[in-house]
Amino acid sequence: MTELHTETLPLLPLTTGVVLPGMVVTLTIESPEASAAIEAAAQGELILVPRIQGRYARVGTVAKVEEVGRVRGGAEAVVIRGLHRGVVGLGVPGTGSATWVEIEPVDDGQPSPRAVTLAREYRATIENIVEARGVPQVAEFLRGISDPSQIADTAGYSPDLDFERKVEILETVDVEQRLEKVLEWAKDTLAEVEVKERIRDEVADNLEKRQREVILREQMAAIRKELGDDGGAEDVIEELRTKIEDAGMPDAVREQAERELGRLERTSEQSPEYGWIRTYLDWLTDVPWNVRTDDNLEIGEARGVLDADHEGLEDVKERILEYLAVRKLRRDRGLVEAGGRGSGAILTLVGPPGVGKTSLGESVARALGRSFVRVSLGGIHDEAEIRGHRRTYVGALPGRIVRALKDAGTKNPVMMLDEIDKVGADWRGDPSSALLEVLDPAQNHTFRDHYLDVDLDLSEVLFIATANISETIPAPLLDRMEVIRIDGYTEDEKIAIARHHLLPRQLERNGLRGDEVDISDDALRAIVGDYTREAGVRNLERELGKLLRKVATTIASDAPTTAIGVSADDVRGYLGRPRFFFEVAERTAVPGVATGLAVTGTGGDVLFIEATREGGEPSDGFTLTGQLGDVMKESAQIALSYVRSHAAELGIAPDRLRGRFHLHVPAGAVPKDGPSAGITMTTALVSLLTDVPVHPSVGMTGEVTLQGRVLPIGGLKQKVLAAHRAGLTEVIVPKRNEGDLDDVPEQVREQMTFHPVEDVRDVLAVALRPEEPAVITDAA
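Above: the chain's sequence. Below: its structure in token form.
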């Protein structure tokens, strides 16, 4: 770069644009200052200096006036050609009114190799830009320029550079620095152009795809119309809109449904989200928001339905009738629940298998005139089974409660939650915790399913839960329930159930008519006593089915003309040898065996406790077998300690306490636990050590203390029924359980003798009394 000699030139200020060397531009003369500068130049040269932010640029462009004239409209204009850069110096006096300044001309000199390389790169970048923009003429213009300085100055034509950057180009005298700046800016512009180009291509592709989809949909609609199957997305939207209007949703739910319907309208049918939204709206409109059945509040009719369907179960029937009576009074007296809530109830039927807990739910629904739905909870571990899945998951569905409401078709069905005591918990959640809200009358009017994500009123649902045992139900959940215990049937009740319910059903299942077989009550009693020993009637129905299948085989083979009679003596021929025996007398015939009573998951049962002693030196050893739990083992230790400490009082010789004692509770494969066998273990040990057998007709239950006190126990009704089934006629019970005997059916109470006791001595007085000798009469 070579500096030329200083010269004095008139100054033409520029406020809106920049003229670089090599550029030919037309300027409109709009100010006196500009007019004076043009006049002073008079076909000669002048200096063009941009004015930026209140100052003149320190470098200007020496230009030559090519032509002066007027443009359309009469305004004066001048054609100017930029020659080279000039460093602006001090102002000097001059002719006319123009402003004259000293100028130091700048010569770019010979280009350096780096300048040539930068110029080549800049030219290639600009070519890419103009090619993307579809302006190939600019690339041709650049190919005609070889000087690096001139190539850099072509940036003055760029529409991507603002006024300040163009001034910066003018003020950058060094060619390499100028090329570096314009190259950096050109690369930024190229990047923006490429992004815009990519976006434009994507938009074009999407538009093309949508246009194709629109055309295909139009063609599909035309095909459907030709086939007489006119329909489409518009029909789906209108159908859903009608269902939303007719569903009777609460305002908040309706707003949610309409919001989702709007999303569905804006979503393409080919989008996966279209199917998700439509499925959600289908579920939302299928829920019975405002559909309910009118309760049959006639107490007499409801009682008739319950009695016709089930024998016994008076506690449950009375509770249902109470519920109906309350509903009837509230309706007749115009009483409305606070907040518009319903008067639902949560009943829990706890009892052994086969007593009719599940079938009772259908009977209750029939008595009320309501829909009935059953939700099986046995073995579920996932909380989402109750509350549903979030809609963000693939294959999400509402929980079982919402699905049951949809199946019922009303908002006030009888909903049976079957096997609620068998709900599990693991890493997927605790379903019983989710049930806390469902089964709480104070909360379930705003139950929120994760899938629907709106408040759902469950307060009008009559929940009936079933369980075999209440101990496995979490305490917070059990606290929300009204527990009604069904402890099993008496023998007479089983015979009535078999006659009125099981036998007709099995006759139909085995293709028989009622006039083809005649089963006597004695035969039914034999089946109940010798082939089934259970709290319920499930095995009884199986045995009846087995008997009737053999009868059906006989009828199909021989075609008898008269009804086949089945008496008690015939039962063995149909069902084989008896499975149960009255073995209490045989088992207790030797000292050291006592008959206890227990409660299991299948109802009450008889428990034989056997004690024996191994002779030898004194020993504190005590062997316990029979899969006993910790509580039962402690009861055995307490019993032995009581016997040792009261040996003299009980008439036990000191040498009898020597040796090792062994206490066994059959059956050994069945786990057992609980304190209620305490007095039975004590009686077995005293019987062993005194060589007095336990009275064969006596069963007993009660917890024992070290002082010999008898404490109360639970499940007395089930234990008494088990004793009755086993043929026992006397039961020793704790004194504090005496009031629980009112729950025992009157028929059983009349056939049995109860001995309320407070002390072990009272137990031993009853259990170890000698058996009355049989009375022998002389026939002669």
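The longest helix spans residues 175-227.
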